[in-house]
Amino acid sequence: MPHFSVVIPLYNKEKDIKATLESLFEQTFSDFEVVVVNDGSTDNSEAIVKEFDDPRIRLFSKENEGVALTRNLGVEKAKTNHIVFLDADDYWYPFHLENLHNLTSKFPEEQWYATAYEKKHNQKLTTAMISPIMEQKNWMGVVDDYFKNSLIDALAWTSAVCMKKDFFQKLNGFDATITNGAGEDTDLWLRAALESPLVFSTRISARHNLDSSNRISHTPTKDRVFMSLDKYEDIAKSNPYLKQYLDVNRFSFAIQHKLAKDDASFEDYVRKIDLKNLTSKQRFLLKQPRKALIGMKNLKYLLETLGKRTTAFK
Q: What's the domain range around 261?
């Protein structure tokens, strides 16, 4: 039996899936199977997967149901207890699975693992994830507090996570009531962090392609069902970093809803935020009218095309 099962959800990614699979098959650690679940693609995505003549690929097809149920089915079909997620438009450096294998070998008793990653904003700008833990170069170990270290960029990002299958099933997988990239991943990592500490490597071995095609996060805000942050409030009463993490996410959701002219949802998110948990920049942004936010968003994209990352989370 292979060591890893690599689960790839596939939906209309004909422009990206070839490069993603090529990065997978260039891994220095090759003891893995590939579980591709085609979520009712209407383009040439499945045909491109079939061009790869590799016995490690297992391809399943179903009607379109969304990324949460697609990933859950992939885990169900996986033959191993070490599940690694890879979205169909992301990229792994050749040593990514080796990086994860080092973690699972050194900390076999733990339940979930992740590596550091970078963000490709466009052709001119790729930046490393931002977290206090990244100050420790080439470090691997058990993270003392997931939430404290995830207030700018989250430690766990889907295409850099490995989770034991039985742990994933204990958590009931991805919540399919959350839709179109409105927190399916964040919600699972939050539940995982409350159950078990994350094992992490600060060696960057994966890339989040923010400029890929057909990204579900580009779905209009009003067409998305966002994760519930409120259900974690009771736990947050005894965990100040969790409360801060929830409020930072509320800030993000609030801004998205103001941009979408959903003032009622904006006000609901803001009402539940302890403003002391936000930076001065975030508090300033919450006060801005929609037109000003649009202008700042456009400026952010312009600066990124010039090679400079800006973020409201730092």
A: 228-305
With 0-12 CB in 10 A as exposed, 13-18 as middle and 19+ as buried, what is 94? middle
Q: Calculate mean pLDDT across residues 131-141.
A: 96
pTM of the model: 0.93
What angle in degrees, to the nearest 10, is found between the helix axes of 263-271 and 240-259? 160
119 vs 123: CA distance, rounded Å: 11
**Do 297 and 263 lie in a common domain?**
yes
Q: Amino acid identity, residue 140?
A: M
User: Which are the contacts of 34, defined by CB distance < 8 A and separation ≥ 6?
Assistant: 5, 6, 8, 21, 24, 54, 56, 57, 58
Q: 122 near 100, Cβ under 8 Å?
A: no
DSSP characters for the chain? --SEEEEEEESS-TTTHHHHHHHHHT-S---EEEEEEEES--SSHHHHHHT---TTEEEEEE----HHHHHHHHHHH--SSEEEE--TT-EE-TTHHHHHHHHHHH-TT-SEEEEEEEEEEETTEEEE---GGGGSTT-EEE-S-TTTT-SSS-S--GGGEEEEHHHHHHTTSS-TTS-TTSSHHHHHHHHHHHHSPEEEEEEEEEEEETT-SS-GGGS-GGG--PPPSGGGHHHHTT-HHHHHHHHHHHHHHHHHHHHTT-HHHHHHHHHT--GGGS-HHHHHHHTS-HHHHHHHHHHHHHHHHTT----TT-
**CA dist., res. 46 & res. 214, Å (int):** 15
Question: Is the domain of 25 the same as that of 172?
Answer: yes
Q: Give the total number of structural domains in the chain.
A: 2
12-62, pLDDT tens digit by residue? Answer: 999 999 999 999 999 999 999 999 999 999 999 999 999 999 999 999 999
State how far the Cα of 103 lies from the Cα of 116, in Å rounded to an integer: 12
Residue 219 lies in a domain: no
